[in-house]
Design brief:
By secondary structure, the protein is α+β, with helices and mostly antiparallel strands. Helix content is about 20%, strand content about 20%. The protein folds into 2 domains: about 350 residues, Alpha-Beta Plaits; about 60 residues, no CATH class. It is globular. The structure holds iron/sulfur cluster (2 copies).
Length: about 425
């Protein structure tokens, strides 16, 4: 099996195909701290792509309440258990080697454990081993997009593999949080690896992963092989479907686009202003080309405040999350990897640049390719975690692919007073 480099694991790993990389990669950042679980994003996607017969159960975008919610139910816990089983049998203790941390290439240290591709080779079924360790959810597991909605846990540990080491202040004793999920348009997709028909492909122009509906024969191997369970089978057409990243909008073919790339429907509909999506430039060797003032490059590679979801699965997902501050750290480290503590520390007391970049979330439908910050006056001072912290009313300007200004916002939200017209005017 060929070896490919996975920067999120800080090492090479086995994958069924040789490395090949797109010129640009579809990527996004979700700020879990701000999500209100309103499901506007889920409805925006559903009303665009999955409103037809045979798609009733499909939610290409879903928002689940963690730790108990999941679509399909317990998708992550089930796969983590399978992985744990293989690790135990192979006598491997999965861990992250902190000593091997090294800048951009190994930002989250090195993962010493088995990915879904490597674990699959150690687990033989009746037909040999799978290309990617996975399972097929039952119909019942797909039936509720957010079962256990807003159900909190006291974090006593035990069930479903939650850590029993407890939490310390300032984390809450009782917690839940919303986890927003779409297809991660992975660099090394499990769905693509698992497809025996070679019906799944990654577009060279933007890294979007699509299923060729003509080639697909509905074997559901992609449903089994996607660790995030974002490939879905449609009973009316007998083929599989998945999130298409609203590719006509990414291509700049939306009537409102002025010919430049626009964000997907789920991103632009977000009420909580938690989503920022874009395209990052990929170098010849597959690494992210240095692009200091691309907001995604800054959040993920420079400030490292946004982290991949279950990087240990090994697909190199291109969706990144700012982890919730109030959730016990062992749970978050299992979900987002070893970068959690640094990310939360940075988010709680944001640098001047981070605070400005966070203002870009949901200010325009156009994809922002570059930002620029104009410095403003100091407007607030306080102490955070015993250290002095100041807020400046900086202005951030975002530019589209053509270099045109598409947004200009300040850190402090301006207040507009309308003249009173009636006694009860507000
Ligand atoms: S999230 Fe799943 S469906 Fe999407 S590219 Fe990755 S493996 Fe494929
Ligand atoms: S629209 Fe935004 S705030 Fe509402 S559930 Fe979706 S991600 Fe969360």
């Amino acid at each position: 099996m060929p070896e490919v480099y996975n920067w999120q694991l800080g090492r090479k790993m086995l994958y069924p195909y040789e490395e090949r990389h797109p010129r640009w990669q579809f990527a996004f950042v979700f700020n879990t701290n701000r999500c209100i679980g309103c499901q506007t994003c889920s409805m925006a996607c559903k009303s665009t792509w999955t409103f037809s017969k045979g798609q009733e159960y499909m939610w290409w975008n879903n928002v689940e309440s963690k730790p108990y919610g999941g679509y399909p139910q317990f998708w992550d816990v089930k796969l983590l258990r399978m992985l744990d089983d293989v690790h135990q049998r192979a006598n491997v203790e999965p861990s992250w080697d902190v000593a091997k941390r090294d800048g951009k290439e190994r930002p989250y240290v090195t993962f010493e454990g088995l990915t879904i591709f490597e674990a699959a080779r150690k687990r033989y079924g009746p037909e040999g081993h799978q290309p990617a360790l996975g399972y097929l959810p039952t119909d019942a597991e797909w039936r509720a997009p957010n079962i256990y909605e807003d159900t909190s846990t006291g974090y006593k540990g035990g069930a479903f593999g939650l850590s029993t080491t407890g939490e310390s202040l300032p984390e809450h004793k009782t917690w839940f949080f919303h986890l927003q999920r779409i297809c991660n348009h992975c660099t090394y997709p499990g769905c693509l690896a698992a497809c025996p028909r070679k019906a799944i492909y990654k577009r060279p122009e933007d890294g979007i992963v699509l299923i060729d509906q003509e080639r697909c024969r509905g074997y559901k191997m992609c449903v089994e092989g996607c660790p995030y369970k974002k490939s879905m089978f449609r009973s009316t057409t007998r083929v599989s479907e998945k999130c298409v990243a609203c590719y006509p909008r990414i291509e700049g073919r939306d009537p409102l686009s002025d010919g430049v790339p626009m964000e997907t429907r789920c991103m632009t509909a977000c009420v909580g202003k938690i989503r920022l999506q874009g395209l990052v430039r990929i170098a010849e060797d597959g690494s992210w080309a240095e692009d200091r003032y691309n907001p995604l490059y800054y959040l993920i590679k420079v400030d490292r405040v946004a982290l991949p979801l279950y990087p240990q699965f090994g697909t190199e997902p291109n969706g990144f999350y700012i982890p919730p501050r109030w959730v016990p750290r062992p749970y978050l480290r299992q979900m987002f990897g070893p970068g959690v503590d640094e990310a939360i520390e940075k988010y709680v007391a944001p640098s001047r640049e981070l605070l400005a970049v966070l203002q870009l979330f949901r200010t325009t439908q156009k994809i922002i390719f570059r930002y620029e910050i104009r410095e403003g006056a100091k407007v607030y001072e306080t102490t955070i975690n015993g250290k002095p912290w100041a807020m400046y009313n900086d202005t951030i300007i975002g530019y589209d692919k053509a270099g045109r200004e598409v947004v200009r916002v300040t850190v402090e939200e301006p207040v507009y007073e309308r003249p009173a017209q009636h006694p009860n005017s507000i």
